[in-house]
Amino acid sequence: MTETDFLAYVQAGGQVEAGDWMPDEYRARLVKFVEMHANSELMGVLPEREWILRAPTLQRKLALTAKVQDEVGHAQLIYRVVEDLGKPRSQCLDDLLAGRAKFHNVFHYPTRSWGDVGVIAWLVDAAAIVSQKALLKCSYAPYARIMKKICWEESFHILHGRDVVLAMVTGTDEQRELVQEALDRWWGPLMQFHGTPIPRDDDQMYVWRIKSQGNEEARQQFLESYVPQVWELGLTLPDPKLRRGDDGVWEYTEPDWDELRTVVTGHGPRTLERLELRRRFLEQEAWVREAVA
Amino acid sequence: MIFEVFRQEKRGQPFAHAGSIEAPDVAFAETWAREQYGRRGESEALWLVPRSGVHEVRDFPDEFDLKYRRVDGYSLKRRLKEARERAGTPPARAR
Amino acid sequence: MNERARLLLELADDELLVGWRDSEWTGIAPTLEEDVAFSSIAQNEIGHARAAYELAARELGTTADELAFDRAPGEYRSSPLVELRLVDWAHTIARRCLYEQADRARIEALMQSGDEVVAGLARKIDREEAYHRMHAELWAERLRGDPRFEQALAELRPYVDGDRRTRTDDFAALHDEMTSVRRTAPGAEW
Hints:
Chain A has 293 residues and is mainly alpha-helical. The longest helix of chain A has 29 residues. With 95 residues, chain B is an alpha+beta fold. Chain B is built from 2 helices and 3 strands. The longest helix of chain B is centred in the middle third of the chain and has 13 residues. Chain B is elongated, with a radius of gyration of 25 Å. In chain C, helix 2 packs antiparallel against helix 6, helix 5 runs antiparallel to helix 6 and helix 5 crosses helix 7. The longest helix of chain C is centred in the first third of the chain and has 29 residues. The relative contact order of chain C is 0.15. At the A-C interface, helix 2, helix 3, helix 6, helix 11 and helix 12 of A face helix 2, helix 3 and helix 8 of C.
């Protein structure tokens, strides 16, 4: 099989298994993409983890711990895919800590209140599930297969998040304000989440059918599903231009792409702190990993 | 050691591949897989198989189209019609 | 407070605090595989605490959440062993081993209780604790002989029979943190 045949095969919906021949370029792009996903799950536990000790009821405590636990489990599943593609987990972690590998923009930001816990679980996970559902059709079959479990678990997170938000918007004025304030802060990063609107045929991840949809398609799907749900609670979104056009396409203010670039290249408001926490515990518990190696 | 994990969702159903898990021995693999693949009650049972114990077989050539081993290898229609005509009978279950 | 409530609260406070402490590892445990397993243990312990608080709450005319969060520190009856903040793996596993040992003796006694409410709860808890004990033994076997682990065991052993009437310094910090959101809107639903 030549590279051209392979490309035609995946573009026609063909799937590839771990032991199959694949072009070097495909493998390299796949590793980069899947590794970033794993890193994002791993780093994504940190913003929410800070609130595990502060959960205000037993039920919320259990649900939040379970949610963070799921993200750790996702990281395990996804790093295994990367490992089977030839890159050991330890090397992924080294690259992450050294700033050589990326993770999703939303995990570089601080969490400031219990309102963030609700907004993240509801809307950040909603944005993520839009991307992850599209990965169910990824040309690399081992990755597509684990996405089933991941999407299934993410659906609990959205329920948990929505429930937290509902409890707060039906609570005191102060509780409602916590949600609104969190929403105002998270909207920018959420609009940047799916990336710049490059045409999908210029997006190499789409060309190789690692992704099955373009960035803008994903963002439109997110807006279509969730903006009405936010508005129906009487909450507002900090974008005066945000509206659904007559053609069904959502219009919005151009997201701050400079901010996205700055953040994902390792200059977000909490990037260094979070990497430092990872480094500290990885070093501190290195002897334990040796004991179970 | 890498263990391949097979998961049975409900009693009576087949065990389907669910993913893999790395552990120092089978006891840790059990402890870890139990939670990774069964904490939500989504599994009736798991099989943990060391990857080294899996022997993959692929490539089943059928260059000469030996269709008689498959259901689409039998086309009864034409002969059945002829047989009925000779016997002067209607189809067995005329509906 | 009647005997049933007293027994239930002592059990619940221990399970709550050990669960709260263990949940601190969620997201930063030594391996991802262990992280998932350990988080389940923490959740189970808090689940046990919730079940025991619910039964106690019936006796006391309150709710499980109010018992878990809204009492003054002096009202808790936890063992100092579960109050300590131990964010290193040797101490954490040492505590799990010591706790599971002590908890096993308690649960076995409670299963024999003439009070069917208490005995029934103890039987249910025991089914899950069996896996926690397996987990603790698995790790103890791995770490046995490692000076970090042996030292942690020796260090923590005296806390097992510590005084339940006084709180450790670590408790104060934990109580403060675990009630920090809840205190901002007393009586509200979350």
